[in-house]
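[Discussion] Sanity-checking designs against the backbone

I'm trying to build intuition for which residues belong where. Below is a structure token string of 959 positions. I'd appreciate it if someone posts a full sequence so I can compare it with mine line by line.
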């Protein structure tokens, strides 16, 4: 879809909506001169309504007539006025609301079922982020990267060279796993992705929720509960909860159009001394177009509504490499990155929408509600490079009967080409992986009040995710001729996940118990199904072709298809019951307690509890803390996933098998069945509001987790129980899912929020920081694998430990500043990402070490990453192969201008100083460690990203 068609569709949409732009009622809601954000404006008798934006502004489209318009906001007194609109009239109605005793504060719904509470009065830390606050002033086009910048304890790493991990983004809180954070939509459990991260990626062994499948245009706000909440919300809430609240706007059309592109004037592959060594794009790459729309309609005359929001994104590839690869002229050059000649972000095209609907039933205290949506994504990424210059790679290329290379134009490339001749030694190609993701959901329910104030909510929520691989511009070199070179696209198969959740929640507030008591209880029934389906036979089979008598590599290069032996369908059910009580012991002291029991059909039951409290030391200073137990059941993805993939071992591409945990091979090796992860979560902090304009929150946490699920290292034929299996399946090594480690996460979150308005001036400053660390307390090595150092390291190596500890930087701080005057505003985001360290595979040994012990020749020299060592460039010994990424800061700037009351325009630059993470090399051993990182490229996956400076412009329209 080209840009002209985008604008044509946009224009058609506007024309279709013109009939509703007849009578306009607009204005600003304030309190004491300060704008009221998220205030409610409701019109009687139509039931039409809307919510004020960050500047307190609202806009309504009405028919001509007389109305009663009410204005309200949490902590402020409600006001109702009469309004008369004539045909074609546009009227401005401003309203100033008096503050109640509580004052103007943001209210959240996660963290406690004891009614909505302000961020400062909540017994646990909660962030509330408005989409118009975080989305309009950054080049970042998707929800995941926007939250990564705005919330320091939010962890997210963009992958390159990680197969499916390049196509989907997961995130978590406080340095924990992707699947240890629960995601809700309007307070209802969101389904997981069908995808699970494999070896070679961050978060290996974890699945997660695809937040980018939720269109930003449909989102009103995001509430992030930074505290363990398994007892309240169930499995996966060990680290906390992300609750996405959908829009309820009525009568307002919101349109956001954006464009951006990276201008990396240092590491773009076009700046290399020999660009033919790499895939290249343009000097401004990763060009992105985004379009978001939202509109709401009133339903009936009792306040019913339906709101629609949708997004489209088209993002191009990026190409990155070290600029100088000429060792003859520069001794500090890093050499050609032969394994990753196409390193960078893949391309993405995605689009989808969601609706949010509520219909009060006339004459009753019951409301019907429903929400859901659909999202489609196509991602194209490059796998690792296949090069003819490596003789062991010849079996991965199409060849004729004499073993000579068959050159395929359009797929294969030649670096440093010899004029008039094909220098086959310089031929390479990068397989491509197309990933198609379909995500859909639908929830419906009834809520109301019965009896003496008993609130109830009965709902059913269904979610589905399908993840489908295709190999593109690649080969199965084992096929007979001519298919070896004529068949270049393969259906590799995929997997999908279905989740259906039914809930009943009941809440009652008792005003006469102490200073108020809220009792909540309910139940949940959940059905889950996971299906892995095989690809076409040519995507995985060995076609029998030989090269000099040696069988050629089977399966499509890049990502071999799933085999019939991998295919599986698994399902399970879960029943849960919970009870929660929130007691205001006094006007100053709040206590909240919860208990939950869950039973899974596949591994049994578990109980959890939580106790949280908040005490008001003064009117503006609160102390809060909590203690809870938590759990996370192994996902069906972790229990049933299986595939054959390519890994780098000792500098060669080899086939590795990820064997499902339930298989007999796992028991023969000594790996036990998966069990639930369990945790304890302790937090203590305070909130302080020294002035009306300034808020401070500080919260420390201690999270201990037992039996964290990871993927083991590589087991080869030296494990007698696996030898026959590996030979029979034509693979070199195998991995398994296992409950490998016990960990402790410690940290502190700090938020300082200052907002001031005077006259036409407005100034905001938001500082947020996270300081954290991870300790591995124990490695749960099965007795059968605790016999040799090699087996211990194969189970969970020192290298895997380093990656687990690098789940999040040691520090992450963000500072957002904005000054506005009249129609103009200018601002900056400064984000600091602290130090972290990962390791390479290692190809040298520590002199004098026991060959079978730490650093010995039989471990690190094999390239398995066990105590990895590499040779110094000066030839004077070896050093540990550590990749140290020092702390660095990025600076974003923007300027916005309100062209009119309905249109605003923003331009800016993210990472204006083109800051990059450190190169993935070991200091003093550049030549031997270069290309040995997890990504194989110049940079590893770290939160700050590696693409450099990004320019953007955005246009926002509100009618």
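Best answer:
Here's mine. Compare freely.
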């Amino acid at each position: 879809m080209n840009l002209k068609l985008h604008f044509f569709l946009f224009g058609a949409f506007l024309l279709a909506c013109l009939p509703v732009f007849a009578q306009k009622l607009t204005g600003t809601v304030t309190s004491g001169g300060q704008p009221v954000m998220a205030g409610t404006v409701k019109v009687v008798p139509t039931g039409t309504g809307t919510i004020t934006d960050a500047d307190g502004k609202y806009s309504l489209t009405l028919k001509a007539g007389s109305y009663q318009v009410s204005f309200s906001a949490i902590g402020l007194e409600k006001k109702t006025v009469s309004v008369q609109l004539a045909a074609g009239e546009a009227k401005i109605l401003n309203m100033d609301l008096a503050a109640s005793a509580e004052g103007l504060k943001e209210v959240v719904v996660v963290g406690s079922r004891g009614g909505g509470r302000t961020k400062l009065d909540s017994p646990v830390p909660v962030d509330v982020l408005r989409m118009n606050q975080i989305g309009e002033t950054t080049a970042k086009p998707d929800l995941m990267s926007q939250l990564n910048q705005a919330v320091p304890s939010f962890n997210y790493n963009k992958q390159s060279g990680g197969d499916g991990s390049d196509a989907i983004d997961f995130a978590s809180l406080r340095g924990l796993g992707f699947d240890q954070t629960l995601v809700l939509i309007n307070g209802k459990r969101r389904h997981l992705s069908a995808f699970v991260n494999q070896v070679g990626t961050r978060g290996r062994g974890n699945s997660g929720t695809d937040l980018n499948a939720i269109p930003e245009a449909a989102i009103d706000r995001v509430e992030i509960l930074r505290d363990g909440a398994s007892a309240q919300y169930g499995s996966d809430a060990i680290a906390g909860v992300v609750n996405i609240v959908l829009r309820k706007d009525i009568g307002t059309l919101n349109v956001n159009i954006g464009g951006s592109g990276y201008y990396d004037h240092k590491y773009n592959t076009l700046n290399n001394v020999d660009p033919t060594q790499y895939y290249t794009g343009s000097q401004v790459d990763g060009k992105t177009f985004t379009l978001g729309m939202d509109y709401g309609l009133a339903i009936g005359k009792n306040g019913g509504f339906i709101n629609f929001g949708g997004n489209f994104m088209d993002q191009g590839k990026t190409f990155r490499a070290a600029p100088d690869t000429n060792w003859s002229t520069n001794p500090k050059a890093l050499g050609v990155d032969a394994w990753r000649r196409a390193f960078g972000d893949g391309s993405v095209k995605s689009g989808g929408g969601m609706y949010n609907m509520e219909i009060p039933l006339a004459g009753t205290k019951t409301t019907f509600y429903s929400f859901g949506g659909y999202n489609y994504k196509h991602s194209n990424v490059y796998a690792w490079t296949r090069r003819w210059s490596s003789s062991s790679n010849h079996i991965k290329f199409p060849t004729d009967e004499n073993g000579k290379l068959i050159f395929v134009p359009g797929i294969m490339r030649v670096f440093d080409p010899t004029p008039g001749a094909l220098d086959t030694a310089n031929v390479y190609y990068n397989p491509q992986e197309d990933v198609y993701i379909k995500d859909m959901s639908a929830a419906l329910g009834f809520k109301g009040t019965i009896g003496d104030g008993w609130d109830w909510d009965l709902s059913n929520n269904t979610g589905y995710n399908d993840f489908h691989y295709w190999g593109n511009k690649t080969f199965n070199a084992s096929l007979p001729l001519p298919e070896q070179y004529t068949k270049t696209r393969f259906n590799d198969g995929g997997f999908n996940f279905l989740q259906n959740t039914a809930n009943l929640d009941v809440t009652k507030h008792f005003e006469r118990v102490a200073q108020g008591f809220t009792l909540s209880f309910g139940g949940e029934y959940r059905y889950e199904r996971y299906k892995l389906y095989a690809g076409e036979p040519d995507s995985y089979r060995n076609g029998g072709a030989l090269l000099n008598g040696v069988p050629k590599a089977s399966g499509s290069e890049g990502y071999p298809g799933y085999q019939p032996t991998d295919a599986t369908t698994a399902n399970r059910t879960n029943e849960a019951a919970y009870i929660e009580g929130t007691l205001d012991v006094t006007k100053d002291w709040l206590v909240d307690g919860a208990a939950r029991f869950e039973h899974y059909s596949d591994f049994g039951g578990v109980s959890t509890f939580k106790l949280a409290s908040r005490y008001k030391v003064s009117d503006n200073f609160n102390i809060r803390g909590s203690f809870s137990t938590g759990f996370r059941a192994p996902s069906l993805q972790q229990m049933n996933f299986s595939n054959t993939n390519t890994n780098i071992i000792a500098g060669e591409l080899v086939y590795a098998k990820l064997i499902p945990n339930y298989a007999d091979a796992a028991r023969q090796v000594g790996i036990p069945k998966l069990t639930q992860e369990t945790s304890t979560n302790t937090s203590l902090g305070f909130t302080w509001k020294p002035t009306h304009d300034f808020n401070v929150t500080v919260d420390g946490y201690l999270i201990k987790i037992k039996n964290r699920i990871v993927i083991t290292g590589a087991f080869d034929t030296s494990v007698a129980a696996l030898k026959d299996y590996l030979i029979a399946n034509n693979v070199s090594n195998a991995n398994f899912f296992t409950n490998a480690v016990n960990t402790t996460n410690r940290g502190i979150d700090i938020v300082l929020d200052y907002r001031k308005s005077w006259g036409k001036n407005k100034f905001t400053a938001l500082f947020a920081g996270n300081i954290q660390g991870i300790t591995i307390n124990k490695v749960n090595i099965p007795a059968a694998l605790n016999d040799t150092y090699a087996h211990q390291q194969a189970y969970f190596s020192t290298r895997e430990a380093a990656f687990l500890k690098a789940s999040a930087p040691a520090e992450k701080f963000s500072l957002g500043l904005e000054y506005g005057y009249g129609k103009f505003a200018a601002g900056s985001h400064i984000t600091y990402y602290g130090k972290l360290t990962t390791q390479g595979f290692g190809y040298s040994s520590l002199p004098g070490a026991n060959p079978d012990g730490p650093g010995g020749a039989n471990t690190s020299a094999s390239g398995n990453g066990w105590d990895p060592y590499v040779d110094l460039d000066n030839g004077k010994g070896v050093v540990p192969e550590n990749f140290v990424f020092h702390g660095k800061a990025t600076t974003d700037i923007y300027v916005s201008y309100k062209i009119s009351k309905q249109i605003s325009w923003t331009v800016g630059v993210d990472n204006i100083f083109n800051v990059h993470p450190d190169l993935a090399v070991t200091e003093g051993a550049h030549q031997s460690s270069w290309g040995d990182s997890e990504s194989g490229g110049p940079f590893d996956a770290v939160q700050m990203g590696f693409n450099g400076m990004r320019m953007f412009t955005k246009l926002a329209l509100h009618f």
